[in-house]
Amino acid sequence: MILCITEKPSVGADIAKILGAEVRRDGYFEGNDYCVTWTFGHLCELKDPADYTPDWKRWSLSALPMIPERFGIKLKDDKGIQHQFEVIERLIKKCDKVVNCGDAGQEGELIQRWVMQKAGCDKPVERLWISSLTDESIKEGFEHLRPQKELESLYIAGLCRAIGDWILGINATRLYTLKYAERNDSRNNVLSVGRVQTPTLALVVNRQKEIECFVPTTTYELRTLYRDVTFTSNVKAFKTEEDGQEKLKDAAECEFEVTEVTKKKVKEAPPRLFDLTSLQVEANKKYGLSADETLKTIQSLYEKKLTTYPRVDTTYLTDDVYPKCGPILNGLGYYQDALKPIRGKKLKKSNKVFDNTKVTDHHAIIPTGMPAQMLSKPEWQIYDLVARRFISVFFPDCVYDQTQIKGKAGKIEFKASGKRIAEAGWKSVYDWNNSQEKTMTPPTAKDDADDEGKDQEKTLPEFVKGEKGPHKPFLGKKTTTPPSYYTEGTLLKAMETAGASVDDEELREALKANGIGRPSTRAAIIEILYKRAYIRKQGKSLRATDAGIELIGLIKEELLKSAKLTGIWEGRLRGIERGEYSAPEFISQLKGMINEITLAVLRDPTNRRITQVIETPKQSKTKKKKLSSNTENQ
Description:
The structure is a single chain. By secondary structure, the protein is α+β, with helices and mostly antiparallel strands. α6 (152-180) runs antiparallel to α19 (563-577). It has 21 helices and 18 strands.
């Protein structure tokens, strides 16, 4: 008998149907010489400090840092989980072979491996590795099962991540709580510190301080109005209006003359396909959806077989996906009118879309081509983003007519620029909207129309070199503005690039290697900061609370709150996943890091204190049930 272990009951039911295991039992399906069972996400977690020694149950500075000689796992304390584990354990003993059907990613690998280890699995194990849950994909996956050894480095990386979060999260939280919290009952005022959550909080706090300390400056720029077009001079901006009066007078005494008219064609390529973070950023920007809402929604679409595996950090597809793209496009029934411009033509294959070297485990998020019906509003919004982005990459570039006009008034030179769309290309996909009634809710023509690169520049009238005429010079006031508060979307981008402000897509791709957190956990980190009352929402923007500001102000150790330093650790974890970095060295360095931090804090002679009550034991217990063990210490 072959035992298949999936990560969710719903996925188990889908796989069981395809394998012919249609007899429902308590906690599994069986039939056709298969048994299909499931976990409920994390059944196991790393042991708590008290599980290693009773001395670690009590919070004490003298016990820090707590580093077990060997880390162990345990079942979560939940009757439903324990019952399901007993089912899995019993089936493993009876089977001849196990197929690991967990989510095809680092966390999914860790979840399933821990369960099999806890159950004492000594049977041969193979891995189902698929990017979508369509029947075709599942069947193809079972025809090409992978040996478990091929995924060993992925598991090791996940294990190192969990151990690293335990070492830093548990030790640093106890250390800072005992040293700096109110002395009445330190556990009533827990200062939660983590490898990812603390540098993420620092990003929000530092941005907020930058805004609060910002001092605006005002300058005055010489401009002129000619034929209803505003031209800007090349004269350096003036500190006061009085400083600019002489130049203003000089310009006013002369006619305006057009000295140069330059026109050129400019091409704009389609935006890249979505990875999880860029999808969360776009959904937050367009619809105000939180990172967590977007993750749950795209996960739902994946489980409904409508989109591919969502927890990805690449915007590329592999070459073997290209032959499948035509059938996928044909399956997008709602968008057939939008596809008319490329019908009958060979599908475009750009190296900005298809590149095997840029894909490791999974490709970018795309539709599967399965019919999309009866979706909720957020499901439709996310599906529409993914579908239009996928369609657009097969369209030609958008072509602009870009015009620059140079002129002068006396000796003072001016210029103005503008553009208009000559060939819409891929932008037609975002302008298109089908008003036909559907069983799913289509987007409204204006509210949901995508604003990908909407033309913000003015279209200029025709100018001729040498033409002259009257003009109206004036001094335009310019006042500097502070940076914007983070939104969830811009915070996700900052986490992805370790705090660097990057708009260029190619540079963003390069910085991903040292971003903080993983695409699959960043939403959970933000939720943790909400739940621990370190940040709050004000409209769409994020604000640090007094508790969050106090905590970051208290932490002097840059190792704990620097996004760049944390990004280096993330880069090493990715190196472990690729088999390019040593796992023992990573853990050894983490141990050295927590030793260094512990000594620095213990030697602190100041009487710094945080008085803000942040979480009580009751609240902490409630939160712990809601957070996965893979993220609660981050």
